[in-house]
Amino acid sequence: CHAKLDQALVSPEDYNQLKEAFLNPVLIGKDIFQKTKPEEFNEFLTFLEKTAPYDIVLDGLNIALKVPKSRRSPSTFAFQLKSVVKHFACQKAKILILGRKHMKRWPSEDMSYIYNNAHVFLTEDISQDDPFLLYATLYSGLGTCFVSQDLMRGHKFLLADPKLQATFIKWQAKHQFCISYIDMYGNVGLKEPVSFMQSIQCNARGDWHIPYMVKEDLPHNVRVDNYHRHWLCLSSQPSQQASDSSGSYNKRKQPVSHNRPKVVLKNLFDS
């Protein structure tokens, strides 16, 4: 239908409000970092002050586990992460990897490449790394993106203000990469951030656009909640197809109402 979907744009003002709310010490202490020792979080803050900002923040363990269970091993995990680091390093991006301390035991050859081409911060194995990932990304500025398969739903609901929740959804849509595949040669396929809102929308003409899923189109292991490639358009404006159909009805002498708007169902792909 050639209509434009609402853009997932976050203004600097809304971004700063989101950043301040997420980095609020009260929120940090009460909810987000409850499984983290204060010493570890303070070490993380010092690390950020010395090394930020970054271009891209990687969820190291999440990326490493993007492999079938039958193939999981330390060497495979290290290869997965190294491949993604190499992908962004070739673009001369400043990279931060957040992971767990047990990753130090992964094969040294791949880990050496990772340490030489990215900043790495490893938390205790009992810590939740998602809050660190979001914190580092928000801390770095509006242009910083992150890579993770996680939808981060729990963190959105920690924001009490509905406006901040909406800003978080827009920011996430515009800044989150997901892994589509990593092949045996280390080639990486990414689902890039979308430029439009992944939600039901109604435009000024009164046309509705509704996202829906087709299972066959989903990359392996990508969460369906966050991946809408197909859209339905519900329009009150008759299309050429509808006009042709009306003509065939007239030939069969069936009544056609010209006073009622026709609802035309169309499919948008990659709108």
From TrEMBL:
<feature type="compositionally biased region" description="Basic residues">
    <location>
        <begin position="250"/>
        <end position="261"/>
    </location>
</feature>
<keyword id="KW-0479">Metal-binding</keyword>
<comment type="similarity">
    <text>Belongs to the PPR family. P subfamily.</text>
</comment>
<dbReference type="GO" id="GO:0030678">
    <property type="term" value="C:mitochondrial ribonuclease P complex"/>
</dbReference>
<dbReference type="Pfam" id="PF16953">
    <property type="entry name" value="PRORP"/>
</dbReference>
<dbReference type="GO" id="GO:0046872">
    <property type="term" value="F:metal ion binding"/>
</dbReference>
<dbReference type="InterPro" id="IPR033495">
    <property type="entry name" value="MRPP3_PIN_dom"/>
</dbReference>
<feature type="domain" description="PRORP">
    <location>
        <begin position="1"/>
        <end position="233"/>
    </location>
</feature>
<keyword id="KW-0378">Hydrolase</keyword>
<keyword id="KW-0496">Mitochondrion</keyword>
<keyword id="KW-0809">Transit peptide</keyword>
<dbReference type="InterPro" id="IPR031595">
    <property type="entry name" value="PRORP_C"/>
</dbReference>
<protein>
    <recommendedName>
        <fullName>PRORP domain-containing protein</fullName>
    </recommendedName>
</protein>
<keyword id="KW-0862">Zinc</keyword>
<dbReference type="GO" id="GO:0097745">
    <property type="term" value="P:mitochondrial tRNA 5'-end processing"/>
</dbReference>
<dbReference type="GO" id="GO:0001682">
    <property type="term" value="P:tRNA 5'-leader removal"/>
</dbReference>
<dbReference type="GO" id="GO:0004526">
    <property type="term" value="F:ribonuclease P activity"/>
</dbReference>
<feature type="region of interest" description="Disordered">
    <location>
        <begin position="238"/>
        <end position="261"/>
    </location>
</feature>
<feature type="compositionally biased region" description="Low complexity">
    <location>
        <begin position="238"/>
        <end position="248"/>
    </location>
</feature>
